[in-house]
Write a structure and sequence with these properties.
The chain has 307 residues and is α+β, with helices and mostly antiparallel strands. It has three domains: 3-100, 3-Layer(aba) Sandwich (Rossmann fold), CATH 3.40.50; 119-126 and 198-294, ATP-grasp fold, B domain (D-amino Acid Aminotransferase, Chain A, domain 1, 2-Layer Sandwich); 132-193, Dna Ligase, domain 1, CATH 3.30.1490. It is 30% helix and 30% strand. The chain has a five-stranded antiparallel β-sheet with strand order 15-14-13-16-17. Strand 13 and strand 14 (209-217) form a beta hairpin.
Length: 307
Protein backbone atom coordinates (compact mmCIF):
# COMPACT_ATOMS: atom_id res chain seq x y z
CA UNK A 1 0.00 0.00 0.00
CA UNK A 2 1.38 3.38 -1.00
CA UNK A 3 2.26 5.84 1.76
CA UNK A 4 1.88 9.52 2.50
CA UNK A 5 5.15 11.39 3.05
CA UNK A 6 5.18 14.29 5.52
CA UNK A 7 8.20 16.60 5.38
CA UNK A 8 8.43 19.15 8.18
CA UNK A 9 10.48 20.79 10.91
CA UNK A 10 8.82 19.19 13.93
CA UNK A 11 6.91 22.19 15.30
CA UNK A 12 3.70 21.25 17.11
CA UNK A 13 1.91 24.37 15.84
CA UNK A 14 2.00 23.15 12.23
CA UNK A 15 -1.04 21.56 10.52
CA UNK A 16 1.27 18.68 9.60
CA UNK A 17 1.67 17.82 13.29
CA UNK A 18 -2.08 17.25 13.55
CA UNK A 19 -1.98 14.68 10.78
CA UNK A 20 -0.10 11.59 12.15
CA UNK A 21 -2.77 10.74 14.78
CA UNK A 22 -5.47 11.14 12.12
CA UNK A 23 -3.55 8.95 9.67
CA UNK A 24 -3.24 6.24 12.33
CA UNK A 25 -6.94 6.51 13.15
CA UNK A 26 -7.83 6.11 9.47
CA UNK A 27 -5.28 3.32 8.93
CA UNK A 28 -3.38 5.44 6.40
CA UNK A 29 0.33 4.46 6.25
CA UNK A 30 2.75 7.40 6.32
CA UNK A 31 6.38 8.41 6.67
CA UNK A 32 7.45 11.48 8.65
CA UNK A 33 10.77 13.13 7.77
CA UNK A 34 12.37 16.31 9.01
CA UNK A 35 13.90 18.66 6.47
CA UNK A 36 17.17 18.36 8.38
CA UNK A 37 17.21 14.58 7.79
CA UNK A 38 17.05 14.86 3.98
CA UNK A 39 20.05 14.51 1.70
CA UNK A 40 20.32 14.58 -2.08
CA UNK A 41 22.78 12.09 -3.55
CA UNK A 42 22.87 12.44 -7.30
CA UNK A 43 19.30 11.96 -8.51
CA UNK A 44 18.29 10.11 -5.33
CA UNK A 45 16.75 11.52 -2.15
CA UNK A 46 17.50 10.01 1.26
CA UNK A 47 15.90 10.28 4.69
CA UNK A 48 18.84 9.57 6.95
CA UNK A 49 20.40 6.41 5.47
CA UNK A 50 17.20 5.27 3.73
CA UNK A 51 16.62 6.01 0.05
CA UNK A 52 13.15 7.30 -0.72
CA UNK A 53 11.29 5.02 -3.13
CA UNK A 54 8.83 7.37 -4.79
CA UNK A 55 7.03 4.42 -6.38
CA UNK A 56 5.62 3.73 -2.91
CA UNK A 57 4.55 7.34 -2.26
CA UNK A 58 1.09 8.59 -3.26
CA UNK A 59 1.06 12.04 -1.62
CA UNK A 60 3.63 14.42 -0.13
CA UNK A 61 2.68 17.13 2.35
CA UNK A 62 5.31 19.79 3.02
CA UNK A 63 5.86 22.07 5.97
CA UNK A 64 7.75 25.34 5.68
CA UNK A 65 11.24 25.02 4.20
CA UNK A 66 12.65 28.16 5.86
CA UNK A 67 13.41 27.71 9.55
CA UNK A 68 15.97 28.43 12.28
CA UNK A 69 17.97 25.85 14.19
CA UNK A 70 18.99 27.16 17.62
CA UNK A 71 21.96 25.76 19.53
CA UNK A 72 20.91 24.61 23.00
CA UNK A 73 23.87 26.09 24.89
CA UNK A 74 24.82 29.27 23.02
CA UNK A 75 21.27 29.94 21.74
CA UNK A 76 22.89 30.92 18.44
CA UNK A 77 20.43 30.63 15.55
CA UNK A 78 21.25 29.32 12.09
CA UNK A 79 18.63 30.19 9.51
CA UNK A 80 17.97 27.65 6.78
CA UNK A 81 16.34 28.47 3.46
CA UNK A 82 15.76 25.27 1.48
CA UNK A 83 13.63 26.71 -1.32
CA UNK A 84 15.96 25.25 -3.96
CA UNK A 85 15.66 21.77 -2.44
CA UNK A 86 11.91 22.28 -2.18
CA UNK A 87 11.74 23.16 -5.87
CA UNK A 88 13.74 20.06 -6.83
CA UNK A 89 11.33 17.88 -4.84
CA UNK A 90 8.34 19.54 -6.49
CA UNK A 91 9.72 18.72 -9.92
CA UNK A 92 10.39 15.12 -8.90
CA UNK A 93 6.76 14.82 -7.76
CA UNK A 94 5.53 16.34 -11.02
CA UNK A 95 7.62 13.90 -13.05
CA UNK A 96 6.31 10.92 -11.09
CA UNK A 97 2.69 12.10 -10.92
CA UNK A 98 2.61 12.39 -7.12
CA UNK A 99 0.13 14.82 -5.58
CA UNK A 100 0.97 17.57 -3.09
CA UNK A 101 -1.37 20.43 -2.07
CA UNK A 102 -0.83 23.70 -3.98
CA UNK A 103 1.54 21.88 -6.37
CA UNK A 104 0.78 23.96 -9.47
CA UNK A 105 1.11 27.21 -7.53
CA UNK A 106 4.42 26.19 -5.94
CA UNK A 107 5.88 25.25 -9.31
CA UNK A 108 4.81 28.58 -10.79
CA UNK A 109 6.15 30.59 -7.82
CA UNK A 110 8.99 28.53 -6.27
CA UNK A 111 10.44 31.58 -4.50
CA UNK A 112 7.20 32.74 -2.88
CA UNK A 113 7.59 35.55 -0.35
CA UNK A 114 6.08 38.93 0.57
CA UNK A 115 7.52 40.53 -2.58
CA UNK A 116 6.16 37.89 -4.96
CA UNK A 117 2.82 38.03 -3.10
CA UNK A 118 2.55 41.68 -4.03
CA UNK A 119 3.03 40.89 -7.70
CA UNK A 120 0.57 37.98 -7.63
CA UNK A 121 -2.15 39.97 -5.85
CA UNK A 122 -1.80 42.84 -8.33
CA UNK A 123 -1.72 40.63 -11.44
CA UNK A 124 -4.82 38.73 -10.32
CA UNK A 125 -6.65 41.90 -9.22
CA UNK A 126 -6.93 40.79 -5.60
CA UNK A 127 -7.64 43.69 -3.20
CA UNK A 128 -4.56 44.27 -1.05
CA UNK A 129 -2.44 46.97 0.58
CA UNK A 130 -0.39 49.26 -1.67
CA UNK A 131 3.15 47.86 -1.66
CA UNK A 132 6.57 49.06 -2.80
CA UNK A 133 9.59 46.84 -3.37
CA UNK A 134 13.01 47.95 -4.58
CA UNK A 135 15.88 45.82 -5.82
CA UNK A 136 18.25 48.38 -4.28
CA UNK A 137 17.22 50.02 -0.98
CA UNK A 138 19.38 53.09 -1.54
CA UNK A 139 18.06 55.89 0.67
CA UNK A 140 17.25 58.45 -2.02
CA UNK A 141 15.54 55.80 -4.17
CA UNK A 142 13.33 54.61 -1.31
CA UNK A 143 12.32 58.12 -0.29
CA UNK A 144 11.62 59.18 -3.88
CA UNK A 145 9.43 56.18 -4.69
CA UNK A 146 7.52 56.34 -1.40
CA UNK A 147 6.66 59.93 -2.25
CA UNK A 148 5.72 59.02 -5.81
CA UNK A 149 3.42 56.20 -4.61
CA UNK A 150 1.94 58.49 -1.93
CA UNK A 151 2.81 56.09 0.90
CA UNK A 152 2.69 58.29 4.02
CA UNK A 153 4.16 57.95 7.49
CA UNK A 154 3.73 55.96 9.58
CA UNK A 155 4.54 53.10 7.24
CA UNK A 156 5.30 49.42 7.66
CA UNK A 157 8.50 47.75 6.45
CA UNK A 158 8.67 43.96 6.15
CA UNK A 159 11.47 41.63 5.19
CA UNK A 160 10.24 39.55 2.27
CA UNK A 161 11.22 36.34 4.05
CA UNK A 162 9.61 36.06 7.43
CA UNK A 163 6.47 35.00 9.24
CA UNK A 164 4.57 35.15 12.50
CA UNK A 165 4.87 38.95 12.59
CA UNK A 166 8.67 38.77 12.87
CA UNK A 167 10.95 41.14 10.91
CA UNK A 168 8.14 43.68 10.58
CA UNK A 169 8.57 47.30 11.69
CA UNK A 170 6.35 50.37 11.97
CA UNK A 171 8.31 53.46 10.96
CA UNK A 172 7.02 56.83 12.16
CA UNK A 173 8.93 59.43 10.15
CA UNK A 174 11.59 60.18 7.55
CA UNK A 175 14.44 60.25 10.07
CA UNK A 176 13.46 56.83 11.43
CA UNK A 177 13.26 55.46 7.90
CA UNK A 178 16.71 56.77 7.00
CA UNK A 179 18.12 55.10 10.10
CA UNK A 180 16.25 51.86 9.31
CA UNK A 181 17.58 51.49 5.77
CA UNK A 182 21.12 52.68 6.56
CA UNK A 183 22.54 49.14 6.65
CA UNK A 184 19.78 47.35 4.77
CA UNK A 185 20.52 48.30 1.19
CA UNK A 186 20.64 44.65 0.04
CA UNK A 187 17.91 43.24 2.33
CA UNK A 188 14.81 42.11 0.41
CA UNK A 189 12.15 44.41 1.88
CA UNK A 190 8.65 45.67 1.09
CA UNK A 191 7.14 48.97 2.24
CA UNK A 192 3.42 49.53 2.88
CA UNK A 193 1.26 52.25 4.41
CA UNK A 194 0.24 51.55 7.99
CA UNK A 195 -3.54 51.09 8.17
CA UNK A 196 -4.86 51.80 11.66
CA UNK A 197 -7.08 48.97 12.91
CA UNK A 198 -8.35 47.31 16.06
CA UNK A 199 -8.10 43.79 14.59
CA UNK A 200 -7.43 41.67 11.54
CA UNK A 201 -8.73 38.22 10.59
CA UNK A 202 -7.35 34.80 9.70
CA UNK A 203 -9.37 32.67 7.29
CA UNK A 204 -8.37 29.06 6.68
CA UNK A 205 -9.46 27.69 3.31
CA UNK A 206 -9.09 24.01 2.43
CA UNK A 207 -10.33 22.42 -0.78
CA UNK A 208 -12.49 25.41 -1.79
CA UNK A 209 -14.15 25.77 1.62
CA UNK A 210 -13.54 28.47 4.23
CA UNK A 211 -13.59 26.19 7.25
CA UNK A 212 -13.46 29.04 9.76
CA UNK A 213 -12.50 32.61 10.65
CA UNK A 214 -10.52 33.95 13.59
CA UNK A 215 -10.37 37.56 14.77
CA UNK A 216 -6.95 38.72 16.01
CA UNK A 217 -6.28 41.86 18.06
CA UNK A 218 -3.06 43.22 19.51
CA UNK A 219 -2.29 43.48 23.20
CA UNK A 220 -2.73 46.93 24.75
CA UNK A 221 0.10 49.20 23.68
CA UNK A 222 1.08 46.91 20.79
CA UNK A 223 0.21 47.13 17.10
CA UNK A 224 0.82 43.61 15.78
CA UNK A 225 -2.22 41.33 15.91
CA UNK A 226 -0.35 38.02 15.47
CA UNK A 227 -1.30 35.28 17.93
CA UNK A 228 2.33 34.12 17.99
CA UNK A 229 3.29 37.56 19.37
CA UNK A 230 0.66 37.59 22.09
CA UNK A 231 -2.34 38.83 20.12
CA UNK A 232 -5.81 37.97 21.43
CA UNK A 233 -7.95 35.65 19.31
CA UNK A 234 -11.65 34.91 19.15
CA UNK A 235 -14.04 32.97 16.97
CA UNK A 236 -15.54 35.08 14.21
CA UNK A 237 -18.38 34.53 11.75
CA UNK A 238 -18.89 36.59 8.61
CA UNK A 239 -20.32 34.87 5.51
CA UNK A 240 -19.19 37.73 3.25
CA UNK A 241 -15.61 37.46 4.48
CA UNK A 242 -15.72 33.69 4.05
CA UNK A 243 -16.87 34.07 0.44
CA UNK A 244 -14.17 36.68 -0.15
CA UNK A 245 -11.51 34.26 1.16
CA UNK A 246 -12.74 31.42 -1.07
CA UNK A 247 -12.75 33.72 -4.11
CA UNK A 248 -9.16 34.82 -3.41
CA UNK A 249 -8.07 31.17 -3.28
CA UNK A 250 -9.80 30.45 -6.59
CA UNK A 251 -8.02 33.36 -8.25
CA UNK A 252 -4.65 32.20 -6.87
CA UNK A 253 -5.25 28.50 -7.56
CA UNK A 254 -4.68 27.49 -3.92
CA UNK A 255 -6.07 24.38 -2.24
CA UNK A 256 -4.87 24.98 1.33
CA UNK A 257 -3.99 28.38 2.80
CA UNK A 258 -4.30 30.71 5.77
CA UNK A 259 -5.35 34.18 4.61
CA UNK A 260 -4.76 37.31 6.69
CA UNK A 261 -7.55 39.79 5.99
CA UNK A 262 -8.14 43.42 6.95
CA UNK A 263 -11.61 44.98 6.92
CA UNK A 264 -11.38 48.58 5.65
CA UNK A 265 -13.98 51.22 4.83
CA UNK A 266 -13.56 50.26 1.17
CA UNK A 267 -14.01 46.53 1.75
CA UNK A 268 -11.82 43.53 2.55
CA UNK A 269 -8.14 43.47 1.60
CA UNK A 270 -5.62 40.65 1.80
CA UNK A 271 -2.59 41.27 4.00
CA UNK A 272 -0.88 37.95 3.29
CA UNK A 273 -1.57 34.47 1.96
CA UNK A 274 0.23 31.99 4.23
CA UNK A 275 0.91 28.68 2.51
CA UNK A 276 2.45 27.29 5.71
CA UNK A 277 0.31 28.44 8.61
CA UNK A 278 0.17 27.77 12.35
CA UNK A 279 -2.94 26.39 14.02
CA UNK A 280 -2.66 26.91 17.77
CA UNK A 281 -4.68 30.13 17.82
CA UNK A 282 -7.25 28.87 15.34
CA UNK A 283 -7.81 25.56 17.11
CA UNK A 284 -8.19 27.33 20.47
CA UNK A 285 -11.27 29.19 19.17
CA UNK A 286 -12.50 26.45 16.79
CA UNK A 287 -12.07 23.22 18.79
CA UNK A 288 -15.03 21.75 16.90
CA UNK A 289 -13.15 21.83 13.58
CA UNK A 290 -10.99 18.81 12.76
CA UNK A 291 -8.29 20.27 10.54
CA UNK A 292 -6.62 16.91 9.98
CA UNK A 293 -9.81 15.34 8.63
CA UNK A 294 -10.27 18.30 6.25
CA UNK A 295 -6.75 17.77 4.88
CA UNK A 296 -7.30 14.01 4.60
CA UNK A 297 -10.48 14.66 2.61
CA UNK A 298 -8.54 17.00 0.30
CA UNK A 299 -5.74 14.54 -0.47
CA UNK A 300 -8.14 11.61 -0.77
CA UNK A 301 -10.29 13.52 -3.26
CA UNK A 302 -7.28 14.55 -5.34
CA UNK A 303 -5.86 11.01 -5.42
CA UNK A 304 -9.24 9.57 -6.49
CA UNK A 305 -9.43 12.16 -9.30
CA UNK A 306 -6.00 11.03 -10.58
CA UNK A 307 -7.14 7.43 -11.05
Amino acid sequence: MKKILLIGIGEENSPKQYLPPAFKKNAMPFIYAKWSDLSFQGKDVFVGQIKLDFKNIKTVIFDIFRFPIIKKVSKQAFNYNLENEFNILLNILKEKGIYTPNHTFFLQYPFYNKFSQMHIFASKKIPTISTLHLCDNKKNKVLSLLKKQSIPFPLVAKESYGGGGNNVWKISNKKALESFIENRRNINTVFQPYIKNDADYRAIVINGECIGLMKRSAQKGQWKNNFSLGGKVQKYIDPKMSRFAVNVCKKMGLEMVGLDILATKNGFVIIEANLFFGLDGFQSVHPEINIAEKIIKLISTKNICKK
